[in-house]
Amino acid sequence: xxxxxxxxxxLDSLPIAYVSHDSAVEKKVLLKFGEVPHVPQLAVxxxxxxxxxxxxxxxxxxETFHFQSGxxxxxxxxxxxxxxxxxxxxxxxxx
Length: 95
Fold this sequence. Notes:
By secondary structure, this protein is an all-beta fold. About 0% of the residues lie in helices and about 45% in strands. It has a single domain (about 15-95), classed as Jelly Rolls (Sandwich). The chain has no helices and 8 strands. About 10% of the residues are buried.
């Protein structure tokens, strides 16, 4: 049985962290592992113009992405922002 959880936060109040597979890509973690069942993490990542996230996959979860703002390309072989604005991506995993 799930318990009711409501977490209210703002991006400005969260510290900057970095994704494990690309130490230059900034993220802010909205939900950490263990806070919500079956969701290892919910985070907002920012890829600066020309910045790229290395192609990777997770054997233990499905990762989903929501592009919030900016311009960029998402390819099967990775992601790269080819525009002049930061690409802001909300992402989370499901196990």
